[in-house]
């Protein structure tokens, strides 16, 4: 495993982290989840990314991860980085959503109980909510660190100027914002236009979620939609309408470039993100140990040639979201 310093902090993260958004809820056998988590740890994946609402049902990914921790990883607590998040809808009523102090603390306490942890290594504000005063959310994050309930805090899906303000507020109270988390992959390049300068100025690490575009940037859909794809799972954000003939043709051509590099398409997609400026880590999701192993092999990739990068951009064309 390759470890990278997270921005201008002293914390290193593995280049490939494991995300538990899908496939770690109650619909997946615990034994399957445990195999993936323990295998990841054995291979040096020291960072596991959770959120209050991961499942389904919401909360079950944290509960299941807590069970796996208690059984197989308890004595390794100091060797792993566990993150969680608050800010998306979690329970009914006025306090189960958004980023108020009430929601942030209640959600954090629930997440600690579900995982059985005494503290999170990283706790995120999961999204920016303009209806909540920024100072209120940021003060909650600062207090979470000061109370020892998280070692570091981070922001996810915040506009760059708001993130910069939040970092400044934290710095005034001697808390450093560690990390920024957003979607970034060959198809979604919005952070390049919106966040790179902020990351550089504030010294934040950058962790990319959905680096495989939920499986679109892999060989998963080259021959139809497999029955065990996330497309058919409860609570999926990838839909069969996303797997168009036009997309499959693009994926096939990307797959040829990957093959020319001696990589699977998933590996090339991860290598592409990891080669971009300021990226600390990619958070990949997997539904099997085989996918995990395939992804980990991305780390022995050859550097991209200018011709390969250009060919990728040409194939993707107007499928790339830049702004
Ligand atoms: N901050 C946020 O708001 C936010 C939002 C989204 C995600 N995240 C984080 O980012 C993590 C990753 O997101 P994601 O699950 O969308 O990530 P992703 O890595 O883009 O997609 C993962 C899916 O791709 C397929 N896959 C993975 N490796 C493969 C391989 N080698 N070959 C073929 N297919 C492969 C699997 O699909 P199948 O399951 O169909 O096999 C897997 O579930 C989440 O778990 C979460 O921790 C954060």
Short structural description:
This protein has eleven helices and ten strands. The protein is of the alpha/beta class.
Can you describe this structure?
It is a single chain. With 323 residues, the chain is an alpha/beta fold. It has one domain: TIM Barrel. It is 39% helix and 15% strand. It is built from eleven helices and ten strands. The strands form two sheets. The protein has an eight-stranded parallel barrel, surrounded by five helices. α4 links the parallel β6 and β7 (150-156). α4 (134-146) crosses α5 and α5 (160-172) packs parallel to α7. The longest helix is centred in the last third of the chain and has 16 residues, at 245-260. The protein is globular, with a radius of gyration of 19 Å. The model has no long low-confidence stretch (mean pLDDT 96). Residues 19-23, 49, 126, 156-157, 181, 209-215, 218-220, 229-230, 266, 283-287, 291, 294-295 line the site of NADP nicotinamide-adenine-dinucleotide phosphate.
List keywords for this structure.
323 residues; alpha/beta; TIM Barrel; 8-stranded parallel barrel; 11 helices; 10 strands; binds NADP nicotinamide-adenine-dinucleotide phosphate
Largest beta-sheet characterization = 8 strands, parallel, barrel
Task: List low-confidence stretches.
Answer: none
Work out the strand percent: 15-25%
Overall tally of domains: 1
Named once each, the bound ligands are: NADP nicotinamide-adenine-dinucleotide phosphate
Q: Topology of this protein?
A:
Blueprint: E1 3-5, E2 12-14, E3 16-19, H1 30-42, E4 47-49, H2 60-73, E5 81-86, H3 101-115, E6 120-125, H4 134-146, E7 150-156, H5 160-172, E8 177-183, H6 190-194, H7 196-202, E9 205-209, H8 245-260, H9 265-274, E10 279-284, H10 289-296, H11 306-316
Parallel strand pairs: 3-4, 3-10, 4-5, 5-6, 6-7, 7-8, 8-9, 9-10
Antiparallel strand pairs: 1-2
The structure holds NADP nicotinamide-adenine-dinucleotide phosphate.
